[in-house]
Amino acid sequence: MCIASCMRTSKLSVSGPTVNSKAALKKPYVILISLDGFRWDYVERFAPPHLSTFIKNGVGAESLIPSFPSKTFPNHYTIATGMYPDNHGIIDNTFYSYEKEATYSISNRAMVQDGSFYGGSPIWVQADKADVVSASYFFVGSEADVQGRRPTYYFPYDHNIKNEVRVKQTLDWLTLPAKKRPHIITLYFSDMDDIGHRFGPNNDEELGKTLLALDNNLGDLFAGVDATGLPVNIIIVSDHGMTEIKNTDLIPIEKIEEDSLYSIANDGAMVHVYPKDNVPVDAIYHFLQEKELHFKVYKTENAPGFEYKPMNKNWGAIQIIPDYGYYFSTLIQIELKKKNPTAVFGVHGYDTDHKDMHGIFYAKGPAFKKGVTIPSVKNIHVYPLMCEILDLEVPNNIDGTIDQLENVLNSSPHKTSKD
Ligand code: AMP
Ligand code: ZN
Ligand code: ZN
Description:
Largest sheet: 9 strands, mixed
Low-confidence stretches: 1-9, 415-419
Helix content: 25-40%
Mean pLDDT: 95
Number of strands: 21
Strand order of the largest sheet: 1-8-7-9-2-10-19-3-20
Bound molecules: adenosine monophosphate, zinc ion
Distance between the termini: 28 Å
């Protein structure tokens, strides 16, 4: 069933069980907020007032370590599922799928909404299985029919929906009658990624302005949540950080294309190479090695950056990885960038050994201790933390574990509910 919402163009959809079970009614609430591209050091650099107070009264990690590659789709879906990209299947923003014989791309709406690309049990699916109402004002995977399930309430992604609208809808969800009120809500804001790409992460003026506006949206959300009096736990994460590069340090992707030997997918900080039928991998490897200039060629099993031995066939047999500070792009894009008056801009996607790639983890609410800071932690561990708070079963095939984050929790987080 789909009902029209009062919002600009965006259409609220309703799926799955729309009422909480008796057990679900006793659970606390979790709001998972992703601030795309929010680098680990922005709070210290810009001291946003609402977020800084939030952290002071809650917990924070030195940084949230993304999974490789440090791109938006693989990492959001890792946060949602507790699995490495290799395991959940959304290995990059763009990749070739051998099973589907098609190239997945985040700009292809049909693919973004096709649940058969998405492995694992995202937190809203896990909630749905336990008859817990869930809602999403955007999150990677939330519009896809993963295992035939979606959040109870969700919206098709629309970059142009104002932050104020997202915040208001979240507060409206929290004031629904208890039976219909979601216990897990995801929210997504792209502002810091947008501005970071445009000006690079070192432009204090532009980043500071954007962050202050975003902080006001968060302040409205925090105040609204407090006013409900409900036991709401807010977890704020980002998918990756950002680093500055010069527009002279772009490598044309056309330089490495060779349709007779292989096809490629993706550009940026990692290019995936898929050999054509009957072309030996070694031949392609040597062919590409000859071209190495500000990039290196690896057979996938030897590629740096992976936290594990990559097993997913969809990576392709070979990876082309630019040196840190270089980035693949199309000739058209490079020309456009060169015309831009700012000679630098921001990118991400690199090996997470580079701290610029790290994001954030902050949390506050009745489940969390106060004033605790922990060392950097991997983003695979956020999912079991949410399962613990909501007392949901943790699937046994995930990569994260609760022991990495349980020290931020009060002893029995799921025993709090007001109604
Ligand atoms: P990137 O910086 O290239 O890794 O990707 C960031 C972009 O992903 C943002 O500018 C968003 O527009 C886009 N994006 C984020 N979430 C979604 C979503 N759920 N569906 C489609 N696009 C999204
Ligand atoms: Zn991102
Ligand atoms: Zn980005």
